[in-house]
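Table S7 (text form). Paired inputs.
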Amino acid sequence: MSNYVNPLSLVAATPMTQQKSSTGGSSWFEAMAQAWGQALDKQAALIQEKSDAINAPGGSDTPSSITELTTESLKMSFLSNSSHTSISTVGQALETMARKQ
């Protein structure tokens, strides 16, 4: 019987030493998920800002403003899909490495 441990699985489970998150998570996987969350929050705030500008009394509901809002919404969709794909893929890879130990 072998006692081999895949080095990548050790890296995935290793706590980060430089910075701890406010939620207590400390692995690079959690840091990646939090970074995606922050990017999505920032994009959502931008969409809200553009939407509020259009809906405000006397707001600018010109075709260019609507197009900008649509563009930001599509960017949100792209970021959301990308975050889901990356987190799922890395999670599945970590699960596969854990099973092979």
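Next pair, protein 2 of 2.
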Amino acid sequence: MKNFILSCIGILFFTAFSTAQDFPMTDGEFVTCSGSFTDSGGVTGDYAVSESFTITFCSPFETDAMRVTFNSFDTQFGDILLAYDGDSNTAPFLGVFQGTTSPGTLLASATNTSGCLTFTFISNGSGTSTGWQAAVECFDTCQTITTDIVTVPAIDADGILRLCQGEVVDFTGSATFSNDSAGATYKFRLPDGTEAVGTTLQQTFNDPGVYRIDFVATAPDGCRDRSLEDIVIQVSTTPDFTGTAAADTTICFGESTDITGMVVATEFASQVAPPVSGVTFLPDDSGTTFYETCIDVSGFAPGATLNSAADLLGFFINMEHSYLGDLDITLTAPNGAVIDVKTGGGGNTFLGVPIDVDTDLTPGVGFVYNFTEAPSATQTLFQASGAVTTLPAGDYLAEDPFSTFAGTSLNGLWCLRIVDNLSSDNGYIFEWGINFNPLIVPDAERYTPGEVSQVWGANADITATNGNVITVTPTVAGQNCYDYIFTDSFGCTYTETVCIEVSSEIATAQPNDIIVCQNTGSATIDLTSRYTQTLNGLDTTLFSIDVYPTQLDADAATNAIVSPGVYDVSANETVFIRVQDLASGCYVVEELDIVYSSAVFNAVADIEACDDVDGAINGLELFDLTAQDAIILGAQSAAEFDVAYFLSQADADANTNSISTPDSYQSMGEIIYVRVSNVQDPSCFTTGSFTLIVMTCEVEVPEGFSPNNDGINDTFSIPGLDQFPNFEMKVFNRLGSVVYETRANNYVEFAGIPNSGVASGDGLLPVGTYFYVIKFNDAEAEDIASWMYINY
């Protein structure tokens, strides 16, 4: 960075000859090819009495010489202007001029190797006059050489190459010669004062600032192009994100917070007075010697003056010393004006943190003492020394006003002098510098990148946006970061990242309702019975749990229920359980509903099924018990009440051995016991029952059959007979004799062949009418006695 500061001084120096300037008479050397040289009063004013100045004009080109043409001249008798053919007033004398005798045109001679002209003006104290005005120019006899540079990235339309910090630039130079380019050499002059030979160059610009690069084409005779700054470069400044911050840097999981984005483009202003740095010993002395160091300011336009105290914001000294009373401190401007910063007094008050041992010369710790006339400075060093052992760093007044410097040239030597007056005690200066008002720094050395956009980067956590303020609700614990992005007119993007620490999620569970298993009346319940469920496995040594009557109380952790284990209720209500992380203070609140609700069994009809529904007459049928659910529940919600089916009242009461497949239950007919219970509190239940009935089918006896083996009605088949496990059947002829008998345990369908009586086994019975009796031996079935007809 120090090299960059020095290059800025050189850059400003070059601006003195890049355009026409006014050069009022003053001390100094100026490099220029165009300007107006006047007395100290300028074009319209008179010079002052008792002046003594020496000024030198030189060309920036080695092959040039200076020419000064006086257009007017008038001095008081005795006030003289002396001219010299060289770069100082020791060069060959060209003449002395006074009164109205004009110097005319003065040229640097052929033997003047510097090509410079020097003038000294001395005025007496008897009066003043209008002085002079002259044109300053340089002249050259070389061929015309014109250079051009192409850059990647390209130069903007206004001729300035604007870059981002760290951007790499490729330069390609070329030149056109009016006579001959044979033997020409080429080089780049870089901002840090170094040179690079050739027609191509690659440079990286890391720091903000104004940089100038000159591509130089030189002919063998020493003539070169007359452009001294081919490329002006401005590097983007880092914007100021002060104010970009979150309302809360730490939040609990699930919470939201606002983040404000604020950014301001930063101005760059060249440092026209770089500070003097380095450890400088202030030895013990008795006023015979002094420490003096000067800053050579050269960044302002030639002839620029300090117009008022406001042009000087202040100056600072970083130092330590073990005895303020030793010191006299002064500051001298380029015109010789002096202000006292500190004179006499102050006793043994420390400056900074010195090592108060005369034989130990180790540097202590310096404090920065800033001398300013801003409102923050209310006392001088001496005035502030009375009540303290060590003067704190900060703002102080000088003993003389800054207005003493009004009228001084800004360019030139500004010198700090420190005198040690008394024996014993010493100190050190680590750095000192001057702060001019940025408003007087030349515009060419100041710029502020424009704003193109400022916006928050996309992030799923952003739940609301109001201008430059976003509301974020992070979804994961730990560090969550959000980017505020600024893009400037140089095309550079800067990002300020704001991070929020999110505490771990408190993974509680919503507790089941506490059911008061009654419709009305008072009850005492145990709210703590839901603590374990709510904690959901959280360590009770790390988390606290309490219950509150309202959400507001839970959020504020006030008015906790004192005896949650024996809590009296008389109607439905909601209480609030707060679980708090003892380390972070974060908490969650879960609602706990207390509900009056008794289970009700609504009576249902029995379920009947015919025995042959499933295709077999066996006394077993499938039943869908759940078809009864809706009627049993009635107005009760199926989400809040459970219906279960059992084979005994005892099982229903104990809630054990429930029917596992109530939607496909096989039964021969029986009583089913029902339990209706609250889902969240199964102990709140009631029971009921209904019956499963398997209906027997009617036996249909045919009126005849034809046992002729044709496959049709070959037997006396009686559908449904086999559903009676104890039936008996007998067949009689018209005489009343039994010709066939059978029973359930050896049932064979009658096929017309007798198996009883005198004709047993004789073959088919004759065609005719026969009689039969069927005894079902079942209390619910009526026996049958009827006839049948056999025909072949």
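The longest helix spans residues 2-18.
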